[in-house]
Design a protein that fits this description.
This protein is mainly α and 217 residues long. 53% of the residues lie in helices and 5% in strands. It is globular.
């Protein structure tokens, strides 16, 4: 009896690349449009809070234009305005605090400092003001919220550099009259990183080898 089974070798399938940046941006814009028609809708406010924070988390701002950076500032203002109608409990529902408990040992914020800040404001109390929103975001330890904080500071620094030629740290050093050298990081067309000082002198960036690799002698 002939073998009726035949093995067909298939090619290697590559996983489709998910464009989270586009997903969160479209979700954010769609929710903003819906909120215009139903401004006091709490569910829409929670959804918008989620989309904006997640968009900040994934968006890449390298080589983006001045207009792109200005748009990010607008989105941040929308976030602050949206948070006024939320409570700390809403924040915890959308982005649960990180379960890290050793902050006191290392002198950093953790779950306990997060809950202390939320309780001080009032878990069920509406956030109410932009100042309160900023304070809670700063004290809130969650990976997505932490990445948002880094990204908005980076955006503000880049925007200042695009407008004045100086980042926030460079401006701080100059305002404080600190005698510190300033270096800017660049990557050449071969993917190699280097630093450039104020006099145009380049310094190569030497990356440390992983522990499991050793240089042959």
């Amino acid at each position: 009896m002939k073998n009726l089974l035949r093995l067909i070798k298939g090619g290697k399938k590559e996983k489709p690349v998910i464009d989270y940046e586009r997903i969160y941006l479209e979700g954010m814009i769609r929710t903003m449009e819906a909120k215009k028609l139903d401004f006091d809708n709490k569910e829409l406010a929670q959804r918008l809070f989620f989309y904006i924070v997640k968009y900040f988390e994934v968006v890449e701002m390298e080589n983006k234009s001045l207009e792109n950076h200005e748009s990010m500032i607008v989105f941040n203002h929308v976030l602050m305005d949206t948070m006024k109608g939320l409570t700390p409990e809403d924040m915890m529902t959308i982005f649960p605090p990180a379960k890290t408990y050793d902050g006191e040992k290392w002198g950093i914020k953790d779950y306990f400092t997060t809950m202390a800040a939320l309780n001080e404001h009032g878990i069920d109390k509406q956030i109410g003001t932009e100042e309160a929103a900023l304070n809670l975001l700063w004290d809130f330890m969650n990976p997505s919220v932490m990445k948002y904080r880094v990204k908005i500071m980076s955006v503000m620094s880049n925007l200042n550099r695009l407008e004045t030629g100086q980042g926030l740290m460079e401006r701080f050093i100059e305002d404080q009259e600190l005698n510190l050298p300033v270096y800017r990081a660049y990557t050449d067309n071969k993917g190699k990183s280097f630093l450039l000082d104020e006099n145009g002198k380049s310094i190569p960036v030497i990356k440390r080898l992983p522990r499991y690799l050793k240089l042959a002698k």
